[in-house]
Specification:
Radius of gyration: 24 Å
Bound molecules: flavin-adenine dinucleotide, FE2/S2 (inorganic) cluster
Shape: globular
Strand order of the largest sheet: 1-10-9-4-3-2
Number of helices: 10
Length: 521
């Protein structure tokens, strides 16, 4: 046995495994041909796929098998057991897949299969000759990749105001800012990827206007691009604080890679930071700056951090967690001015700071949609197929407000996985697949050793129930409104989170076809 294979866990699956030892839906971690893989059974079929998620390397053996797919415990990527294809973001690449032979009462892992290929070329009168995607973030990138995976051969252009090719935005406030993720981890794709897939990625080219009558977009630099189908994925922009001193050079916002680079550079020479905003970005930034041993004060309008999204108990716990890591909170107040050495609060209190980070929320970047005359209602209004009020124009990600199949309400969220999945769904619909967007919303946050995953969407919840111990970082939190469960959050209970997702999917499936709150089915 080689030194490499000695580190592999579980049995050598090329030697055969008794079928009786493999219960339906359960996974066996083993290895074959020097690689770690999982063996699982669905009905009469036995599957073998790679054990490591292609997103951040999550352990698929600790995930959940649902029909002929496996879901990752960390951020709920979903892979086909038949082909290894990454069916749902945030996994974008397939996992390897092996041929399994059943002989007698045993299953043997044989040769590796070819990676999931792109689907055959699509053509026909409903397939657009050219697609333009406005936005090179989570949703835009996922849409472009999926168009090619779905067999689209036409002209495909992605126009991004950002100077950087699509990157892992959630990491910007977490490991990258903390200094534990090198910059090589940040791009979603290699430089050659877009060329290889004939995706004409244009960077640093803000789109100024869209003319839906002649199907053309105009860039700020005057260039024009015609399209047959358009996907709008312009994301969101940080809300700017209009207080004296907010434009000073040591005051930072965090949305782009350039923002994060500037913040990292500033953090390396700063000693005292004030973070204005006590929600996700503010708290993640606080935790990352503490990892750099910077003194951190957090200012928040709310009396309890993240109370609107996670409730009093979780918010209160997070506050204590940050305090235990040395963060000082100033809640129920806001900053009224900033100067080179300090931040002044409403009550006149002055906090010394040589670095200020403002994270007071974002606004969907809907200016283009408004200019183009698309229906806008606190976000770009889309139907269940993510199509806007203008046929052939789709809107996805942070800008989109869509009918939530769970409640029938129109919702807009700012989650990475939702943005990517919407991009993927819209890509299919551009090609005429008529797929409803009915994925259950999912987000995660990480602060110190506290990791929370949230499934569903519970705006305006009136009840929370906690099963387990927040302090032990081992619990499930249910969010209800008028007695109805709308979301589940888990802290280090990945499998419970995955099962909650499946439960919500079942509810959606039951609703399917029934008109809800005036929505057409
Ligand atoms: C620091 C940070 C940490 C986060 N952490 C998490 C997390 O842990 N979990 C989670 O679920 N979510 C997280 N989010 C939210 C998540 O990143 C967003 O929900 C997601 O990026 C939205 O994707 P999007 O494609 O809609 O927008 P974006 O990713 O913002 O992309 C928008 C793109 O549109 C471009 N654009 C805008 N206007 C124009 C124009 N006029 N012309 C051309 N291009 C334009 C922009 O340059 C950009 O390329 C985080 C966000 C930030 C900023
Ligand atoms: S590591 Fe698997 S989904 Fe993120």
């Amino acid at each position: 046995m080689s030194a490499e294979s000695a580190e592999l866990e579980g049995p050598d699956l090329t030697q055969g495994v008794a079928l009786s030892s493999l219960a339906e839906g359960e996974m066996m971690l083993g290895h074959a041909h020097g690689e770690q893989l999982i063996l699982t059974r669905s009905g009469q079929e036995v599957f073998a796929v790679g054990a490591v998620c292609s997103h951040y390397g999550g352990p698929l053996a600790s995930g959940l098998v649902v029909d002929d797919t496996v879901r990752c415990p960390w951020h709920h990527a979903c892979f086909s057991l038949r082909t290894g294809e990454a069916l749902r973001a945030p996994g974008l690449d397939p996992v390897p897949c092996w041929h399994v032979e059943q002989s007698g009462d045993k299953a043997f892992v044989r040769e590796k299969l070819q990676p999931a290929a792109r689907r055959p070329s699509v053509a026909g009168p409903t397939v657009p000759g050219s697609v333009v995607i406005v936005g090179g973030g989570a949703a835009g990138n996922a849409a472009a990749e999926m168009l090619r995976r779905e067999g689209y051969d036409g002209r495909l252009t992605m126009l991004s105001a950002d100077q950087s090719a699509p990157y892992d935005r959630p990491n910007l406030s977490k490991n990258y800012l903390a200094g534990s993720a090198p910059e090589e981890w940040i791009p979603l794709r290699t430089a050659g990827f877009y060329q290889e897939h004939a995706i004409d990625l244009r960077l640093g080219v803000p789109v100024a206007a869209i003319d839906t009558a002649i199907r053309q977009v105009r860039l700020v630099n005057g260039e024009r691009h015609s399209y047959d189908a358009l996907i709008l994925a312009t994301g969101a922009e940080p809300v700017r604080l209009a207080i004296p001193g907010a434009e000073l050079p040591h005051v930072h916002y965090l949305r782009t890679l350039a923002d994060s680079r500037a913040l990292v550079a500033a953090a390396s020479v700063s000693k005292r930071a004030v973070v204005i905003g006590a929600s996700f970005i503010g708290l993640e930034v606080a935790a990352s700056l503490r990892a750099r041993d910077i003194d951190v004060h957090v200012i928040g309008r709310e009396r309890c951090p993240m109370v609107k999204i996670l409730g009093n108990e979780v918010g209160g716990y997070l506050q204590k967690l940050h305090e235990a890591h040395g963060v000082t909170f100033h809640l129920g107040t806001t900053a009224t001015s900033i100067d080179a050495q300090s931040v002044v609060l409403e009550n006149g209190e002055t906090i010394a700071a040589d670095l200020v980070v403002i994270g007071v929320g974002v606004r969907p970047a809907t200016a283009l949609a408004e200019q183009a005359g698309l229906a806008v209602d606190r976000g770009v209004a889309v139907d269940q197929y993510l199509q806007t009020s203008v046929p052939g124009v789709y809107a996805v990600g942070d800008i989109a407000r869509w009918p939530d199949p769970l409640t029938g309400e129109r919702i807009r969220v700012e989650h990475w996985v939702v943005a990517e999945r919407q991009g993927q769904t819209a890509a299919g619909n551009v090609l005429g697949r008529r797929r409803r967007f009915d994925a259950v919303p999912f987000f995660w946050t990480e602060q110190y050793d506290f990791a929370l995953a949230y499934v569903g969407h519970a705006e305006g919840f009136d009840e929370t129930e906690i099963d387990g111990a927040l302090s032990g970082h081992d619990c499930t939190i249910s969010f209800r409104r008028r007695g109805r469960k709308l979301a589940t959050a888990v802290v280090h209970r990945d499998l419970v989170g995955l099962r909650a997702e499946v439960e919500f999917e079942k509810v959606i499936a039951q609703h399917r076809g029934k008109p809800r709150n005036g929505e057409a089915s």
